[in-house]
Amino acid sequence: MSSPASETSNPRGLSQGLDQADFVGAGSPRSKQATTGPPSIASTPSTPVAQITSSNSSPAPSISLSVSSFLTGHSTVPTGPLSPNNASAPNNLSSVASLIARSFAPRIAVFASTDADEFASEKGFSSILELLKPFGDTVSGTVTVHGSQGIPTQLDDFGLRFVSSDFMTTSKSSLPAHSAGVLHSSSTLSPISTTASSPVSPRRRSRSNSRTSTFTAPVPIPAGSGLDCFDIDDIDSLLNLYLAQNPRFFAMSSNGTSPSPLSPQALHETIYSKCFQKMLASPPVSAHETFSHPVAAVIFISSRNPQPIETLSMLYREGNDVQLPAYISKDYLRYYVLVHDEDQSELDKSQALFERMKRHFGIHCHMVRLRSKMATMGSATDDLSEPIIPFYHSEWISASEEIGMLRALNTDQKYIFESDASNLRTFIRDMTVQSLVPFMERCINTWNDQIASSRRGLAGRFFSASRRFLSSNSRPANSSGPGGTSSVSGNYDSTTGSYSFHTAEAQMRKLADYAFMIRDWKLAQSTYDILRKDFLNDKAWMYHAGAQEMAAASLILSGVPLSSKARTETLEPLLDSATYSYISRCALPTYALRTIMVTSELLRSRGGGAADDAARWLMKAVSEKLMGNLAHALVIERVSTCYAIRRGIGSQGWGNRMRKAAFWQLVAAKEWVALDKKQHAMQCLDEAGETVYDNLDWTMKPGSLMYDLRQSTQSMVMYDSAE
After folding, report:
1. 251 pLDDT exceeds 60?
2. How far is CA 35 from CA 298, 313, 421, in A?
3. Is 180 a residue whose pLDDT tops 60?
4. Which candidate, 451, 190, 186, 434, places its Cα nearest to that of 333?
């Protein structure tokens, strides 16, 4: 088996900054049958990097809309009978930043042998992946990460996302010749099989009315063909299930037994937070960002395996030999795990096998001790020394998965032994602290020192521009695409809509994404800022929009003061350009919606004038019709909460936005009435009346919007009572 590293040149030797043990011990088996490890973690592209000087960009649309555009009715969406688990809504900068940072957690691909999955099946789980997922949501204890300056930062909410390895084992023959940048299948991030049917919103382009989230062979989709970052129909269907619940469902008392009602404001925060989280939960594997590319692969076997070393080597080769699109790199950490069966295997034999694994595969190994017996309520009484705890699914499952689980007939609560849960937490923490985070830090330092540092400063800009100019003059004549037009601009291949993983642009994007994942916001922002200019020059619009989006998010998360002038001159152009490119150039409206939702939440959490900007950006999402009917109404209500946090100064509250907040509550109430959601319409009306309109005589006169809406909601209540 030839090493993929031999297929690309490395004239500058960019992998020399990493220890060989990172890829011998962490990546490849030390055996005669498999002696070649994964390719080097970075290599210099054969063509010069993109030119820094930017050209004229297309004008971005202004944030303007007519109030009358909101005062239109919408079709009624069917209601549903069930509701999801409880979750708290973010209400300050730290919680918002935590939610967003955890949504971009490192992805860990799981390779499991047949015996390992059978072990999980005996415990009542479909696979090892299902058993692992919830324990990766938050790594136990604090995780110390070191930024580019070597300064340690303590993170108490660091998380991992365990994902299926199915997309890693698809043969190259199943991929079209012109793959474009996206392996799209929601199940590449989730193994649970569900089927959910969602109403199609008239606000968006036609889509399939139903889908199955069981895994199918991932199909690359051409850039700009309408790829979904998330499914809007599923978000609307899930929101419909949320709204059908009694407010008591979303709040529990401290002992978890007696539900207590939520205030209308808290109920809105909770429901909005849930929908926002689902929008960020399962992005597809894409070329223009590497957040969904695997940072590591965990290879599982059980102590029952008759040929453990050979099985681990086979699973390694399975992931290493597969032919992937050129934008996905196989230079990720390999971690080997032995699952010891406490009920049926001898501990001495498992420990001896574990020592063999460490000699063969290096230090990145772990043995986790689990019971194969299924934990049930009866097992707690049979063996009092083994307490059990409820097993809850990951909070980062997709909307379609949650809909499927809520509608499933079998809703029996699963349990797990407390010792198993403790051992799984220990395994995930050890892997994170001892292997994963150091691996990411070494990658960041190598790419930053050998690629990104040469691009910073005046000398680096002139050098990059000259290399770009010389490369364009020396480009061979046979580099043209169909019709005689050039299909390659710098390192960008427009026929596939992507950069190869070994190019400087792709590696710098990976550097920025890794820095974002370990929350080195300043390094991430500076790298995204360099990349967006390169992508603009290459007319790589999907990459350009992604760099603008993450540059804006990194800038806000970095904590630097953002005055009104800074937001207008720095932040707003980034968001304008990102949303314009996503919508107009790439036909990716869900990515545009993600951009607006993330930045508006971060701006809202800062308060003051930033909250006003958050409201304006949410208005843009509404005016662009980027969402379904129910989400449309929910976002309008969110506009009101953005204005409501402006309390003003002094005893008179000068500078508050209470009238604007009340007006947008009225608009939201009209939307809820049109959607036959009387409970939420009444809550919006009560909130608007309490703050402003109840003190005005004309609002209670026939013909006023407030009067008409109250009459409509009362008629709906009377009709329901008559039924």
Report:
1. no
2. 19, 10, 36
3. no
4. 434
| In contact, 188 and 285? CB cutoff 8 Å | yes
DSSP state of 480: B
3-state secondary structure of 486: strand
Can you tell me which residue has the tokens 């989709």?
A: 221
- Res. 184 pLDDT band, cuts 50 70 90: very low
* Distance separating alpha carbons of residues 506 and 533, to the nearest angstrom: 14
Q: For residue 54, give the H/E element and its range.
A: none
Quote the CA–CA distance of 433 and 443 in Å, as a whole number. Answer: 15
Which tens digits make up the pLDDT trace of 413-431? Answer: 899 999 999 999 999 999 9
DSSP E strands, 460-567: 488-489, 492-493, 498-499
Strand, helix or coil for residue 252: strand
Q: What are phi and psi of 352, to 5 degrees?
A: -65, -40
Give the span between the Cα atoms of 670 and 708, in whole angstroms: 10
Residue 249 is predicted with a pLDDT of 62
Comparing C-alpha atoms, which of 535, 548, 470 is closest to residue 504?
Answer: 535
Provide the mean pLDDT of the chain. 76
**CA 668 to CA 680: how far, in whole Å?**
9
Q: What pLDDT digit, counting tens, does each position of 558-567 carry?
A: 989 899 999 9
Q: With left for phi above 0 and alpha for psi between -120 and 50, is residue 256 left, alpha or beta?
A: left
CA distance 500 to 426: 37
Provide the CA 479 distance to its chain's centre, in angstroms: 36
Nearest in space to 221 (alpha carbons), one of 260, 251, 258, 183: 183
CB 622 within 8 A of CB 664: no
Q: Is the CB of residue 280 less than 8 Å from the CB of residue 605?
A: no
Tokens 């994170």 locate to 432
Per-residue tokens: 51:
């030119």
Nearest Cα to Cα of residue 612 among 570, 657, 679: 657
Token pair for residue 190?
A: 């989730």
CA atoms of 491 and 220, how far apart (whole Å): 20
Distances (CA, A) of 685 to 50, 640, 698: 55, 12, 15
Pairing of strands 285-286, 219-220: unpaired
DSSP structural state of residue 173: G
pLDDT band at 307 (very low <50, low <70, confident <90, very high): very high
Render pLDDT for 188-223 as a digit per residue (tens, 0 to 9).
Answer: 333 333 333 333 444 443 333 333 333 333 334 344
Lowest mean pLDDT among 58-62, 372-376, 422-426, 556-560: 58-62
Q: 364 near 25, Cβ under 8 Å?
A: yes
Q: Is 141 left (phi over 0), alpha (psi -120 to 50) or beta?
A: left
Beta strand 294-302 pairing with 107-112 = parallel
200 three-state secondary structure: coil
CA dist 189 to 60, 126, 186, 719, Å? 33, 15, 6, 44
Helix (H, G, I), strand (E, B) or coil at 294: strand
Residues 179, 220: contact at Cβ < 8 Å?
Answer: yes
